[in-house]
Structure formats: C-alpha cells, structure tokens
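User: Hi! I'm a student and our assignment asks us to look at how structure tokens line up with a sequence. Could you show me two examples?

Assistant: Happy to help. In each example below, the sequence comes first and the structure tokens follow. Example one:
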Amino acid sequence: MATSLTALGILWAFLSLVSALACSTGFYLPYWIKGELTKGFATYFGSFRRCNYPVLNDKGQIELLEACGRYSTFADIPSPWWQATTVLVGVGSGLSLLLAVTACAACCISYLIHGRMAKIVGFFQFLSAVLIAVGVALYPLGWDNIEVQQACGGQSKPYQLGPCEFSYSAHLLVGGTVLLLVCSTLSCKASRLKPGSFR
C-alpha cells in the first residue's frame, strides 16, 4: 500500500475517522439530555430530534409515544439556541467527516497529502472542533424551553438541568471534539512529503 503518510500520519488518519464518527453520531442521535415526563417514562433530547414525547391521539387526548423523531421543520425546534446548535454542530460534524475521508484516502494514495496540505487539513479540523464546541456551549441556553421544563420537573434553566442528566450522545460529542483537537496537532507531522516533491 503506497502512502506518503508517516506512522504518526496513519494514526492521525485513523483518529480523524474515529473523531468524525463520534461527532456525527453524537450529533444525529437525540440522547444529549435525559429527563422524565412521568414516573418511569424517560424522554431524550438532542438539538433537532427527541425520543419519547407526548402526542394527541385520534380522540384528542394526550398519549406518550415511545419513538424517536425530528422536529417537522427547522422553525419547530423549540429554541433559537438549539437552532444555532443544530447548524454549528451539523456543519462542524460534516466538515470533520470530509476531512477524515481525505486523511484516510491518503493512507492508500501516494502524493495525496504533503506537509502543507496536512497542516491545512489540521487547521480545518481545528475549525470543525471550534464549531462543534461553540454549538455544544450554546445548547444549554435552550434548557428553559417548555419541552425541557416538562421533562425536568420545571427546574431547568440555562446551564442548570435540574433533575435531568446528560446522556451518551453528549459524551460522544465532547470526546469527538477533544479528539479533533488532538488530530489537528498530529497533522503537523502526518506527511513525509515536502511541498514541491511532485515536480
């Protein structure tokens, strides 16, 4: 297998893929925070999806639906902070996936990434980590919306969840973001080729 990556560069490519998958999975799955609508009926929230929520049945009565779904439109997301989080984390996760594919392709294709190109990819990995981190930091500002209030016993407010708790998607996002930052530094030593090696 021909590659222009160093051993550290191959580790960088692998960790880039792991971090991108962690961020994308954490973004898509709605298990950021966990609360209870009624005793023993857990509900989960992400920035644009939720699981186990109340709906009106055919008789006009409220029943609890055990399913996950997204909000019907972007405007239906219950907080402008969650809308901003959706955009920032979505763009950051998408960018990290694109960069991970590029890094992994460099494991198989000679001359795909040289030293300067690896540093550019590292810069964009840093940028995607910043986008995700800012999005995650904005998310708690929306904890005062009515849906979270209902699930957290009316005790949630910005940066205070009350009896609700973080769930595993939030941990995936934080871990993936930290790994993206590590990858952005590893990129400096990822390639053994110098610019101009192709002439």
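Example two works the same way, sequence first and then tokens:
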Amino acid sequence: MPKKRQQNQRGKQQRAMQKRTRRKTKLARRAVHESAADRPDRVLRRAREFPFAGCWVQPGWQDYGIASMVVARAQPSNEIVFARFLVDTFCLGMKDTFFGANVPEDQFHQGALPRLYAGVEPVPISVELAHEIVYGAIEYAEANGFRPHGHFRRTQWILDPPDVHPSTGAIRFGYRGRPTYLAGQEDNQSAILNKLVATLGRGGFTYIPAGDPPEGFEDLVDLPEDAPEQSLIWTPQQEDQTRSVASETGIWLPGQDDPESEWPEDEPAEEPSESQLWVPGRQ
C-alpha cells in the first residue's frame, strides 16, 4: 500500500476516534447535567415552579399552639417535593423544618405522609391557611425575639412568597394574645427565658416549664415566695380547672383564674447538624 494512502487511512481513523470521543464526552456531560438537575436541593430551589399537591396539619393544632405541617408540590416527573414545618404559634415560630424531593407520588401518600404523622390522620388545609400559619407565626416570634429555624432559609422555597397570600387575621397568635413559652424537654430553657425577659420584660410572657424549671429561673421571672409547691405544667384540657398566671411573674400557678397567655420556643437555631433532607423512616 502506498505510503500516502496509509497516512490518509490513519488520518481517517484518528478523526473517527476523536469524533467518537467527543460524542461520548458530550453524552457524559449531559448525563451529569440531568442528574444534577434532579438533585434534591436543585428540585427544592425550583419548587415554586410546580403546582401545589396539598397541605396538611395534625388535628387539634390550635389547642396546643404547635402545628406540624406538610406542604407538597407536584414535580413534572410525577414525583413529590415537600417540606415539613414544625411551627409554634404561641411564641417561638418556626422550630424545625426539613424537606424531601423526588418522592414517587404513591410512596409519598402511602408512606412518607403517614410516617410524618405517626399514624394519626392529618387534616387537609388550604394553601392560604398554610401560608398564614407559617408566615404569621414567624412574624409573631420575631416580635418576641426569635428567628426562624436555620433550615427555613431553604425550605421556604416550598412556599409562595409572603405577599402572595395576604393575612386574613383568622389566626390569633399567642395563647389568648399573650406570648406563652411552653417548654420542650430538649429546650435550653434558661437561654429562652433570658431572651424573653430581654425582649418582653418580666411579666410580659407566660412560662410553662417542662419538668423541673432550670436552676436560677426564679431570678429571671421573680417567682413569688408563696408559690404553691405543685406542678406548673398546664394544658388546654385543664382550663376547666381554676388555674391562671401570676400577674407579676407570668408563671402558671395552680389555684388561680384562667390566664391570658401564649408560648414561645427555642432560640434562633444556629445551623443545625441534623440533615434537613427527609429520608424514609424519618418523622
């Protein structure tokens, strides 16, 4: 075979190989791009482009001032992107939140949603009410000195912007209009009390301890010397009993009249270490 023909043949082979390499590279890049587009964080960022698939809250949420709410949107792929919001409407606002994405629709309704409510049948609510609960509680909590949970910076994309659904005033935040801190077992109660005293002043809020009050809390709330040695825990079911708030302290005390109160929660969270992404089995 002449030398020139051999060179031409080698040139064709090299060009063909380069063309195949470019095609493979292009396909690989496209696959990476498509995969990245389906990443949960990318889906969450685009969530406002998708229609709402439903909003739910647990029954009786208004009685206790805690709304465990799920808001879901339908992805074009027949999958669901959703966020769960734990909202304290009595004072602390957004206590916790996380999200899930790319969840098959049937798995969401038959698996994820029941798990999130631990088998209790959630109550469907309107999109407007869901937004009023979240944004209203956040605004109320900020007036009490508390910012939303750190993960809300991301899960807010499940919701519409605050001005899309104007407040109707249907929800009264606080317990009977008064900031009321119903402490959780894992709360840093001292820090929260300090924040409340600094923002609202002594007597400007109601405090319902969880278990034993923190050491030195009397100095924060000026508990009177004649306070009964009984449990300070209160629940809405006990309203028919004679209980109220000591006006000079904001502490629930047995043997008094019904109070005018409402409750806050955890301090503004620093970036939490727990993942904000929902996984099967998480409640």
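Here is something you could point out in your write-up. The chain has a mean pLDDT of 77.
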